[in-house]
Amino acid sequence: MEKTGPMYYNGIYHLFYQYNPKGAVWGNIVWAHSVSKDMVNWEAVEHAIYPSHPFDIKGCWSGSATILPDNKPIIFYTGIDSQERQLQNYAIPANLSDPYLREWIKPSDNPIAVPTGNMNTTAFRDPSTAWKVDGNWRMVVGSRRKSRGLAYLYRSRDFKTWIKAKHPLHSVAKTGMWECVDFFPVSSCGDTGLDTSAVGPNVKHVMKVSLDVTRFEYYTIGTYLPNRDKYLVNKDLVDGWDGLRYDHGNFYASKTFFDPAKNRRILWGWANESDTADDDVSKGWAGIQAIPRKVWLDPNGKQLLQWPIEEIETLRDQNVQLSNQELKLGDHIEVTGITAAQADVDVTFSIPNLEKAEPFDPSWTNAQDLCSLKGSTVQGGVGPFGLLTLASENLEEYTPVFFRVFKGQDKHVVLLCCDATSSSLRKTGLYRPSFAGFVDVDLADKKLSLRSLIDNSVVESFGAKGKTCITSRVYPKSAVFDDAHLFVFNNGTETITAALNAWSMRKPIQMNN
Question: If exposure means fewest CB atoms within 10 Å of the residue's CB, which of 50, 299, 324, 423 is most exposed?
Answer without folding.
Answer: 324
